[in-house]
Amino acid sequence: MMFSSSIPFKLPLVRDFGRNDARHNSSISKGNQRHNQPDIRHPFPPKQPRCFRTDSTPPEHPNARLLYQRDPKRLMLPRCLVGLNALQCTYWAWFIVDVVPGLAVKEGFDGISYMAGSMGLVMSLLMLGGSCLYPRLLVGEISKTENDDGTIIKCYTVPLIRLETDDQATVYPRGKLRIENELDQKKFIDGIESHLSIVADDARCPLLFAPMPGEIKRKAELMPLFLVDSVNEQHQRTKGRTRDHHDEKNNKTAVSKRRGSKRRLTR
């Protein structure tokens, strides 16, 4: 009894723990209600940063099989072309705007014309357009859909020359891509390093395919995607030619046998 009376505080009972939990839950719910209520000082919620794609965004074709992927180290050439042509355009624009009027006014060159600067600016703009079109047609990645009914092709964006995302990739149905040039077909089959032209039915310009030996992941699955139509057509042509040749040869032999038999009968 003496020991219990000397304790300066009250020991919590079991029912006190339940009351404390209820009070804590009620305080949390009130805090949440206050947080969900609109703030009069800031009626509009803060804008979230806009991003086209994050790591948590699921891809459109998660089970796609990668067939070809271009080495990122090989992007130095298109980037240098775009950068140098852009600097060239800037130089000719500065030449027309600043250099030619300065020479005409300060130095007294009355006969100077804008023809040289205009021609240089036009040529540099054409070269810049070609250098920007090249990465847009250059194939950077080829994948096959999970159902084997389409081909996913990713090219590069301009001006930073980056690989397209899954949202920007183009999906071609099976049989819409082909290599029509016979020389390009032989180069692709033999593995010769060169720019190959891939014709698509829905594209205005052919795609450029420049594979290296180590960049093709699955060549056995990649070849039928581009060579299915052209090789079959070529095979049918050669088969028809050989069939016609055999028929013609059989007809000639039959005619010669008939003539020989007629000669024997006459004798």
The succession of helices and strands, N to C, reads HHEHHEEEEHEEH
The amount of helix comes to 40-55%
**How many DSSP E strands?**
7
Q: First CA to last CA: what distance?
A: 153 Å
What integer value in Å does the Rg equal? 38 Å
Given helix and strand content, the structural type is: alpha+beta
Low-confidence stretches: 1-5, 44-58
Major beta sheet, specifics? 4 strands, antiparallel
The largest beta-sheet arranges its strands as 1-2-3-4
The number of helical segments is: 6
Strand content: 5-15%
Arithmetic mean pLDDT: 75
Coarse shape: elongated
Short description:
This protein has 267 residues and is of the alpha+beta class. The chain is built from 6 helices and 7 strands.
Structure keywords:
267 residues, alpha+beta, 6 helices, elongated, disordered N terminus
Can you walk me through this structure?
The chain is of the alpha+beta class. The protein is 51% helix and 10% strand. The protein is built from 6 helices and 7 strands. Strands 1-2-3-4 form a 4-stranded antiparallel sheet, with helices on one face. The protein is elongated and about 100 Å long. Mean pLDDT is 75; it is low at 1-5 and 44-58.
